[in-house]
Amino acid sequence: MAVMMQAFYWDAPVKENKRGEWWNFLAEKVPQLAASGINSMWLPPFSKATNPASNGYDPYDYFDLGDFDQKDSVKTLYGNRAELEKLIQVMREHKIGAIADMVINHCSGADEEETNPLDGKKRWTKFTPKSGKFPRDWNCFHPSRYERVMIEGEKFAGFPHLCHRNPRVYEAMFEYARLAIEELDFDGLRFDFVKGFGAWMIGLLAKYQYQKKDGREFTPFVVGEYWSGPQAIDGWLDEVRAVTDDQIAAFDFPLRYKLKDVCDTPNYDLRRLTDGQSVSAGRPFNAVTFTENHDMGGNEVMNDKMLGYSFILTGDGYPCVFWWDYFNCELARPRTPNGIDALIDVHHRYAGGESTILHADPDLYIMQRHGTEAQSGLVYVLNNLGNQWSGTSVKTKWSKQKFKPVAWDGHDTAHPDERTTDDKGNAEFPAPPRGYCVYAPISEQ
Length: 445
Fold this sequence. Notes:
Elements: E1 4-6, H1 12-15, H2 22-36, E2 40-42, E3 48-49, E4 59-61, H3 81-93, E5 97-102, E6 112-115, E7 122-126, H4 167-183, E8 188-191, H5 199-207, E9 210-211, E10 217-218, E11 221-224, H6 230-241, E12 248-251, H7 253-264, H8 279-282, E13 287-290, H9 305-314, E14 318-322, H10 323-328, H11 340-349, E15 355-361, E16 364-369, E17 378-383, E18 390-395, E19 402-409, E20 419-420, E21 426-431, E22 435-441
Parallel strand pairs: 1-2, 1-14, 2-5, 5-8, 8-11, 11-12, 12-13, 13-14
Antiparallel strand pairs: 3-4, 6-7, 9-10, 15-16, 16-17, 17-22, 18-21, 19-20, 19-22
Helix pairs in contact: 2-3, 5-6, 7-9, 9-11
Pfam family, one: Alpha-amylase
Active site: 192 (nucleophile), 225 (proton donor)
Region (Disordered): 408-435
């Protein structure tokens, strides 16, 4: 499985003093990220939003990528279309895929207020974008003649909520997706706030027969942000699957909250990691796992964040690394065994095959990846005790096998020792206090 980078955080261009230059700034970072093993970059929304400082989650003109003088700016917060296309070209040259952030639930920044004749209420629903594409009025939003009563989805803040059953809206969303995949050369689509509209819409956008500029038929990677518990996300995935045969993913919010507790809650019982209550536990090929993202303001992981990254980069799912953690918190720690870079290397070289929990108690968790033809497998140890190295003897699949520590961190960063299993596959694997250690089998030459 690949590794994704969320290539922004909340108001990143403002805080980095890169207003209107984020696409150019990312292009400069691409060679470093490619060398570190990042396979795809999730980019922020590319459309013109309601004001120059907006990070894009309140779209105004879906087809203005920073080239029309409207909403008090020409460029978006991130740049313009030519700069975005150049960024994706640089990513392509370094074999990094591009994932577009699609906001199709709501709009903002309308030009006029209208009275909706269905309920007599005034709303800001008259949009006359300068791109000339997808002008809209009250009938494009709820309530609409196409759906007088909103029968699916939730409202987002106080923004007008698009009615996808209106053919004009439906067609515009397909054109928006085709713009991303066929013209801009994105490889995948991340859909924002998928609670806000029917799962059928995601299914149909995923199922569409896209065609790249060279004539190739193309099926994009698709992931939805369904911020809920495991049962609700599972139900949403089933709804989408009923519309399309393609593999659709969901962000693993249930796992993320567990990982926050691992990092921040004293004496958190590590056995809770084994209860199956996450997307990756039940549907590993449908899970995008993460430790932090741009929406976690006020609920950030405050302590020992590397524990979370060690879990997602050794376990099941498609792990997503957060820009703020990697760069601003300096958790990449290149050329050391103690950071995200070392765990990305572990993910690519060793973290393949079935996952088996070998041991779990309140303070110690040990997991084995069985390996594949291309990846040798590993033993992962997570230690919750704050004052001592801890480990226990476990039975692995490997007999008389030497293991070397390949990545570790904690409140003591002393170099762990190599381990060797006996003829039945048993050995003790320790990890640092409030830390982790990844052991990989040493191949025989």
